[in-house]
Amino acid sequence: MIKTKNLLLCSNIKEVLGDKKNLSDSYLIGTDSRNFEKGSIFLAIKGERFDGFSFVDKVLDKTNLIICESTQDNKVKAQEIISNNPDKVIVLVENSISFTQELASHHVQDWLSKGKREIIAISGSNGKTTTKEMLWHVLSSINSKNVICTQKNNNNHLGVPFTLFQISDEIDYAIVEYGSNHPGEMKTICDCSHPTMGITTNIGDTHMEFFNDLEAVFKEESLIHKYIKNSKFGKKIFFKNNDDSCLSKILNADYVKSFGLKSQSDFNFKFLRADSSIRVNETLITNKNILGEHNFVNLACAFVISQTIYPDKTKEILNATSSFQPTKNRSQWLKWKNSRVFLDAYNANPSSMKLAAKEFYSDFLLRSQSDAKCLMVIGDMNELGDKAPKYHEELGDFFRNFKRADVVFMGRYLKYFQTGYKEDLLISSNDPTTLAQSMEQLQEYSDIFVKASRSLQLESVFAIKERST
Q1: Would you place residue 467 in the very low, low, confident or very high pLDDT band (cuts 50, 70, 90)?
Q2: How far apart are CA 342 and CA 355, in angstroms?
Q3: Are residues 359 and 294 in contact, defined by beta-carbon separation less than 8 angstroms?
Q4: What is the CATH number of the domain that holds 23?
């Protein structure tokens, strides 16, 4: 470490901390100058597009400790700040992102060592955000003051540390979503978060521009089970999906608890579509706000994890699972004109698209008259790399199975979807405005399915504003 007039040049977290307490014990960590809280440490992260240290002037009156990356420009600016503000301390580190991850790791280990606490990791190709939201809904209904969870979609190598910085001594449970879009990212996330409990929801065709096959996805997404096995803290429980062909290969062990619909497990699930329910061993969970076997499995997983944490709170947990409602754009039942709209326009990949469409169609057939038709509005699935044309052609072929559905497609992969679908589409478009105008002229449908990758913002086509009752 080199120290010059309150300017510290450091290579890693140990040089910054020395024998002191964890920096994040006594201080909040702030990374955004727009909502920076007075008294916090300003952690200026250098990204691909901008350097947080460029905005340091906006927080100088709110902090005495600033951490930034040691670029030549930053050194000059830091020296100028120290000259004019001798009460400030600026730490320059070799890599601001690596430092952020190290600081998060140090903070979490210190927090875990102080009591019965859990980092609850949720990974997987599909359903991890929904499972996170369900688990958060349940645990916070029991005690809203001792649990935090990943906000929005902050589930990558930077988002996870930001979540971990929310942890204070009042917190006992941190529900952390783990997302990876390229090999190696999951290891980075696990290294800084130290999961003690967790679940990998399933393995599917996600981010295939970076993963060659399902085995590569499995290796990445399921890494949390190895970290949980080797954890020094917490309950050390990994919940294994026995119905998933990849995850079922994980060997049974003391730290592994299995669940599934189709195979004998520690937690046996049975989906009761007509009753909007799922049975977990002998316990029945009912929810009228969600649709589809996959979402009820997610809800059952939230129940199982919650009951593992609170074994004497079954009644409260059941009340919470029954009241859960999906968040914006994720598997929501909404109203458009006189139609019930199932909106799932947050994300899409081949496995999640097929699963959601199949569940919607099964629900429609259960409730509709024999001559009725539903409308299925779908769009591009992104982040599939060179395999995108193949996946969209396969998707078109898949939708041929829905004989009582009219199909609309929007996006740049239209020709590939049409090749697989082979039949005439009701509407096709590359423009949301044109599609919206065409939709206004359609006959009324009792049920409409809407799903595509987030970038298409298909919900805007309907200008949906009111929730279905």
Answers
A1: very low
A2: 13
A3: yes
A4: 3.40.1390.10
Q: Which residue segment(s) compose the domain that 454 sits in?
A: 332-467
Same domain membership, residue 276 and residue 137 = yes
DSSP letter, residue 46: B
Domain shared by 246 and 145, yes or no: yes
Cβ atoms of 291 and 278 within 8 Å: the answer is no
CB atoms within 10 A of CB 149: 20
Round to whole Å and give the CA distance between 358 and 342. 12
User: Of 245, 277, 276, 275, nearest to 260 (Cα)?
Assistant: 245
The secondary structure element, H or E, covering residue 417 is helix 414-421
User: Which among 181, 219, 170, 206 has a CA at the least distance from the CA of 387?
Assistant: 206
- Distance (Å, whole) CA 84 – CA 365: 72
Q: Give 310-349 pLDDT, tens digit per residue.
A: 999 999 999 999 999 987 667 788 888 888 898 887 778 8
439 and 371 within one domain: yes
One domain, residues 318 and 448 = no
Taking the C-alpha atoms of residue 270 and residue 297, their distance in angstroms, rounded to an integer, is 9
Helices (H), 222-349: 224-229, 293-309, 314-323
Residues 90 and 146 in one domain: no
The CATH number given to whatever domain includes residue 365 is 3.90.190.20
Cα–Cα dist 256/240, whole Å: 7
Same domain for 275 and 188: yes
- What is the rounded CA–CA span in Å between residue 237 and residue 276? 29
Which ranges of 194-257 would DSSP assign to H, the alpha helix? 214-221, 224-229
User: Where would I find the beta strands (DSSP E) of 319-453?
Assistant: 332-336, 339-344, 374-379, 405-410, 427-429, 447-451
Query: In terms of domains, do 115 and 86 share one?
Result: no
- Judged on CB neighbours under 10 Å (0-12, 13-18, 19+), 369 is exposed
